[in-house]
Every structure is written in structure tokens, then in C-alpha cells.
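thread: overnight batch results

M.L. [08:02]
morning all. the overnight job finished for the chain we discussed friday. pasting input first so we're all looking at the same thing
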Amino acid sequence: MAEQLHMPPPSPAPSFTANPDERAAPATGAAPAPPAPGAPGRVRVISWAARARREAGPIGWAAFLASSWTWCIGMFLPVLMIRDYGGWGWAVFALPNVLGAAAMGWVLRDAAASRTVQDAHGAACRWFSLVTIAFHAYFLLALIPSLIGDTFVGLALAVIPLVAILWGRGGRRAPLTGALVLALSVLAMLGYLALQGLPHASTPAKPRLDLLWLGPVCAFGFFLCPYLDLTFHRARQSCTRAGGKTAFGVGFGVFFLLMIVFTALYAQPLAGALRGTSHYSVRSDLFVGVLAVHLGTQAAFTVVAHAAAVRDAAGCDAGGWWLRAFATTVGIVALALLCRWTVDRYAVYRGLWGQRLATSELIYRLFMAFYGLVFPTYAWLFMVPSLRRRRPVAAQPPRPATVIFFGGVLVLAAPGFWLGFIEGRMVWLVPALALVLVSRALLPKGPPIVEPVTE
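M.L. [08:03]
and the structure it wrote out:
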């Protein structure tokens, strides 16, 4: 494809179907060379990684997918949706989320299709993971501590290294780690139900008519963002064609759905804490301690999974990688602490029409703009295959001209998203989303494909 487009072929992004040492082996079908003397550990690592992939199976990867996707969106956005719109708000969140994530197992039919997408859009995938890690840093260090106390910070910081150790070198125990995290969350849900029981129906704070304008934006984000998630590509490349469908179908249609049902169960206490009408602490409220285990463990797994994905994509042996990783970590933590200082210093945002919004929720919604506007717009412009043969958008990375066009679309659409998500005028989401959708037809065309001459 790159030769037809008169451009150098992109350097392939590392896939997750093998350990880095395995990928370096020649794919000639010949027997592998005998191990070098004095290097038994290397052979053993490769054996463990290969055995883990064989033994995980579709259900193991289903648990991995559910845990990797249960993060600060699935664990908190339904709280806001139920507070504002009741049960219908949860449904508008859940339906496109489950269907959009599960569909990736069918759209990318096999590991080769996943590698093609990852190779062409590796930079965007890495940015997706970095923003996700930054989002979780804010979630763990600022947002949740403001609701249930700073003890949660210590719990979360203690869990992250434990999950990283369990993850193993090269992610050889990634499916097992995801399954254990999922099982712990199920136990937390049962414990929460035993302590608190089922919640009572609440009165929506906003008119449900807003869901007519909000629903298409939810579908736009949840159907397109999964293709930028490197943890999804890891799972898809580790499964067969049929196994991938099973993993994504069960992972999101059963396991992940159960996790966001859990979010609906604890939505009211967290909504009350966000309004300031209720005050909870991990130390004094047992059900909050159970909830903190779920929030901290799931968030820790997501951080570890995306950090490992970025490391694999960058090349674990690349010169200076550890220095870049340290600088990135310091920058992300500094950003989260700055957000926390902002929340403590300016507790309330007063909107253009006099409405009040907690600053912690404002920052959360600003992070959500990446998943409601920035990343799905990229996928819409550059990853969805074009029906025109001369512009196979999904087969090539964006060019400088199209990146500039992409930035212009974001600038034009951002005011409408601000008015909708921050100022509460949801109807403005309609023209903003329409602008993004129409922009696909105006995307600058690349050079036409030259068909090979057949005699």
C-alpha cells in the first residue's frame, strides 16, 4: 500500500503477539537456534510468555479487556449521568459503550488487521495511552480523594506496584492479572450490596430531553475510541479470529457490563459527596473502604496496562527510554497535583449563565473532551476506511496537511462542546458534532492509488 501511495513504508509498531525476543527471531519456519551458553533465563522468559498466551484463552483475555476498560470513565461518568438524568442516563452511557467496544472484535477480524491499524496510527495510539494515564493520575490523586478522603491516595499508590509485579515481564501474566482484578471487583460489589443494599430511584436533576443531544456524542466516542487503545490491540493480536470475537463479546457484553452496573449501585453516595451534601471517609465508613478497593485496583490495572503498552510501542531497548519515561511520569504527576491545587483553591466554577459546577467535575469533563472530541475525531478522519478507492484513509498515517486540517476541525468544534458539556446547553452538541462528521468529506485528498498493470 505504501508503494502505491509513493511513500516510504511506515516502520512497523511492535505487536503484542510475542515477547520482544520472540519477535526478533526469523520467521522462516526453521527450527530456532540453540540457546547461547549461560543464558537459560532468556529461554525461560520466552517459554513463560508463550505459555501464558496459549493458556489464557478467550475468557482470560475477556477478563483482561473488562479490567483494562473499567477505568475512570466507567467508574465515574455513570455517577454524573445518573445524577443528572436517572436510569436513562446510565442506559445512554452503557449501550454505545458496550456495543462499541465489543464491535472491535468483529471489525478487526484477526491479528493482522489489528497490526495494520497499529502500524499506521501508532503515534496516536501512544498519545491515547499517555492521556489515559494522566486522566487516572488526576482521578487517583485529586478527584476521588476530594470525595472520600486522602487515605485513598495511599491505597492507590500501594496497589500500583503490586499490579505491576503481578503483570510480569513482557506482560506474560496480563490476562491472569486482569482476571484477578475483575474477581476482586466482583467481591467488592457483593460486599457493597451486603452493606448498603440496592439504591433507591433518584429524581433527575436535568431534563431528559438533553439525552437526545448527548446520545449521538456518546455513540461517536465509544464506537471510535477503542481502535486507539493499545490494550485492545494487545488482546486482539493474542487471540485467533474466532477467539477474538469471544473475548470481546464476553469481555464487554458480560464482564464489563457487570462493572458499570456496579457503578450504578454506588452512584448516589458519590453524587452526594460531589454536591457536598454527604461526607464519607475510607477510615470511618466500611462501604467506602470496599468501594475504594474497587476504584484503586481497577485504576491501578489500567495505569499499568497502558504504561506497558507505551513501553512496548516505544521499544524497551531504545536508547534513553527510561529517561523519557521518568520525565513523562514527573510531568503527569505534576499536572495531577496542579489540578488538585486548583480544586482546593477554586472549589466552584460559575458558568456563563450563572450555573455552578464543582471544579473537580469541571476538570473531569475537560479530560472527557479527549474521548468525546479529540480521539474520536482522529479516528473518524484517519482510521475509518473510505469508500473512495483513491483515499484509503485507514491504510496510511495522516500527512502534515491532514493533521493541520484535523487541528482546525477541533478548534471549530470545541466551542460547541464547551457550551454543551461545561455550560449545560446540550443542544450545542448537535452543530458541533455535525461539523466533525461533515469535515470527513472535506479532508484533503492524498495521491491516487496507481493500479498495477496486469498483462
